Amino acid sequence: MDGGAMVESKQSPLPDDALLAVLAFLSPAELLRCRLVCRRFRDLCLHPDLWRSVWLSDAGLLRAVLRLAPCLGSMFLKDMFFRPTLQAVAPLVPSITCAVASVTFMIQQQESVTLVIDLIRKLSALGGLRVVQLDTLSEVHFPPAFFELIYGLKDLCELELRMQCSPPLSDALLSTQAVKPSLTKLIYGYSADYFVQLLLRTHAATLENVCLMTGGQLPSALRTIVAPNLQSLTCHLNSDLAYSEALSHVHKLKLIAFGEYPFPPEALDFLRQSAQLRSVKLTFVKALPSPADPLFALAASPSAPSLESLSLLCASDSLRAMAGVLARFPSLQTLTISILQSITYMSADAKLCDDFMRAVSPESAPRLTSLTLPPVKGCIHSWLHGPAVQDLLARNPGLHLRADCDAMEFPAPHCDCHWCRWGCHQELKTAAGLRRCSFAAHFKEVGCPKGCVKWL
User: Fold this and answer.
1) Angle between helix 194-202 and 144-151 (nearest 10)
2) Candidate from 25-34, 140-149, 165-174, 177-186 with smallest mean pLDDT
3) Residue 118 DSSP SS3
4) Which end of the chain is more exposed for a tag (fewer CB within 10 A), N or C?
5) Residue 40's pLDDT band (boundaries 50, 70, 90)?
6) How confident is residue 441, by pLDDT bands cut at 50, 70 and 90?
7) pLDDT beyond 80 at 138
8) Residue 48 CB-density burial (10 A; 0-12 exposed, 13-18 middle, 19+ buried)
9) How many angstroms separate the CA atoms of 307 and 252, rounded?
10) Beta-bridge mates of residue 105
């Protein structure tokens, strides 16, 4: 009896479900190798349940999986000069039989456009394609055929297009296609052109998450369509953001401002009228003349009593405004404050941060469990041992404090502060160690973040 038959006979008493549960722990490469064990393993290792959630970006594995596996959860393809994967799978396109649920492209060469179109068309014909993401890193021009293909994809759930060039489309193009609404998530990164208008109108009934990085313009379709399921909206801050029935059910809002202009009255009015907001993120790349205006508008809205998450990337003056309106958000559970140019914090900014921490209490923020603040310039170790942080945690026993370390300056390896000389908490010397920590006045309990650390 040969070795393969012996393995097959020894394993045959085990049911397929048990073997599949074991095989689920193997990597894609190990699954392909296990196909050689015996005939039974050859079939089990290609069971669809083992491949539906697999994500691949390695060129060699992709070539093998696209030839052999019945399906694949997601694949990432790029045409960059360093380890390109799109060109590696190009010869396989006509013979692919693997149904892929999600495909992501990162493109910077004009020559790749035809291959992208052919691959999407092939995967669509196989069925099961639910997610398409495309990011162009240069001015790559896509022909009308690409947008006709994307628009006509059946049962597509998520579409993300971040492009450097506007689609060459007209109002008459695509008008003959009858497309059934299916998109739940749309991310579009160019201008408020005809194509995004068409997508919004076509899929209005199913859209739940919309992110429009459309260069200061908000498509008029977004204000006029009937979108009963729209819950999340991300867009640039502009005067086109007006309150409407189409946006009245938005639960999650992210506004991004790039200029040095005041908050438009229309956008402030949108914040004042919104009644369903549960999560708000305001990002100001440059300091605004009146940084407190959006906070005051949000605090006066019907959403204020039920707001659960608030994130601010703003100037340090907003700390003072946030301290004044904190009590208007009694349901707030997560608060994140990042300060513009926080690595150049001066003593005045440090005082604002300390004053804000003194304003946080069980009376002003009764449900707050997660607070992220930018530490002052200098040693993070010394800041955490300082009286302001110690007092904050003592007054709020259920709070978890995180330090915003994305834009901060870490001390030298041989910091001269007495805490570092003492040698405690060496993990705070690096951003990775700091990100793992949530500082609290209690030991880790059920429901605490993974990195909960008793700090007092």
Assistant:
1) 10
2) 165-174
3) helix
4) N
5) confident
6) very high
7) yes
8) exposed
9) 10
10) 77, 134
What is the reported pLDDT for 164?
Answer: 78
Residues 6+ apart with CB under 8 A from 372: 335, 336, 337, 338, 401, 402, 403, 404
User: Packing angle between helix 347-359 and helix 387-395, nearest 10 degrees?
Assistant: 10
pLDDT reported for residue 2: 43
Report in angstroms the alpha-carbon separations of 164 from 13, 37, 114, 122, 405.
58, 49, 17, 25, 31
Mean pLDDT confidence for 75-79: 92
Q: What does the pLDDT average to over 52-79?
A: 92
Rounded to 5°, the CA angle 420-424-428 comes to 75
User: What would the two tokens of residue 349 be?
Assistant: 């900014």
H-state helical runs in 128-274: 144-151, 194-202, 221-224, 265-273
Which residue, 325, 319, 313, is CA-closest to 355? Answer: 319
Residue 22: its H or E element: helix 16-23
The residue written with tokens 């495309």 in the block is 134
Closest among 327, 379, 376 to 352, alpha carbons compared:
376
Report residue 385's pLDDT band, with 50, 70 and 90 as the boundaries.
confident
Nearest Cα neighbor of 137 from 100, 110, 160 is 110
Distance of CA 151 to the CA centre of its chain: 24
Query: How far are the Cα atoms of 97, 335, 398, 424, 439 from residue 444, in angstroms, in the given order?
Result: 49, 20, 11, 20, 10
Number of residues that make up the chain: 456
pTM reported for the whole predicted model = 0.83
| Residue whose pair of structure tokens reads 């790749």 in the numeric block | 112
Q: Report the C-alpha gap between 400 and 387 in whole angstroms.
A: 16
